[in-house]
Amino acid sequence: MIPTPDLSHLKAADYENVYEPAEDTFILLDALENDLNELRALGAAVCLEIGSGSGCVSTFMGTLLGPSTSLFLCTDINPHAARATSLTGQQNRVVVHPVLTSLTASLLPRLRRAVDVLLFNPPYVPTDTGEAVDGQGGIAGAWAGGLTGMDLTEPVLEQLDELMSERGRFYLVAVKENDPVGIVRRMGEKGFKGEIVLKRRTGRELLHVLRFTR
């Protein structure tokens, strides 16, 4: 079992501005660990996490892959999250590279079809659209997803063909309200192979991890 990254350097004050890892984080870690052998065999050159928050997921990915030449890029619009991601990498001796940007805004076209592992645990909670927009850059932006919870997921799905390498894998966290089956179907119509690889109920949420390949 790959241990969850050490987050002891982050304190309560940090979590006032940065999303604290919770069940949606941990189900993504479990899905990655389930694919341990395949991910190691992939020999990923570029791993990209969109919305890295505390840096827990990218740091876990670095630990999972072990010593490698992989580049771990982590985007977030929240400067507090970018700082936390950097510190989490340092705390766990994993080299991560935070990029302060919205989604993938500053990465294309340079990373066109270059991302071997793409990770996204988006703000998926259905909320008022204004709340989702207002929350960007702050802690509310870590969970407020607009009317269907898909305001930030949809742009990433639209960019998937540009981002993902021919051998790439995309792991996406969603809840029942986001219509995971519908997401898989829609992406299938665009030529991607998708499946729900993990489901877990936590409180009122039914969490899903979706995996896409070409």
Count of discrete alpha- or pi-helical segments spanning 4 or more residues? 7
Mean pLDDT: 92
Report low-confidence residues grouped into runs of 5 or more. none
Shape: globular
- Count all strands and give the number: 7
**How would a crystallographer describe the biggest sheet?**
7 strands, mixed
Strand content: 15-25%
Structural class: alpha/beta
Strand order of the largest sheet: 3-2-1-4-5-7-6
Structural Rg: 16 Å
> How do the helices and strands follow one another from N- to C-terminus?
HHEHEHEEHHEHEE
Calculate the terminal CA-CA distance, rounded to whole Å. Answer: 28 Å
Fraction of helical residues? 25-40%
What topology does this entry show?
Elements: H1 23-34, H2 36-42, E1 46-50, H3 56-65, E2 71-76, H4 79-91, E3 97-100, E4 115-120, H5 129-134, H6 153-163, E5 164-175, H7 180-189, E6 193-202, E7 205-213
Parallel strand pairs: 1-2, 1-4, 2-3, 4-5
Antiparallel strand pairs: 5-7, 6-7
Helix pairs in contact: 1-3
Molecular structure report:
With 214 residues, the protein is α/β, with parallel strands linked by helices. It has helices at 23-34, 36-42, 56-65, 79-91, 129-134, 153-163, 180-189; strands spanning 46-50, 71-76, 97-100, 115-120, 164-175, 193-202, 205-213. Strands 3-2-1-4-5-7-6 form a seven-stranded mixed β-sheet, sandwiched between helices. Helix 1 packs parallel to helix 3. The relative contact order is 0.16.
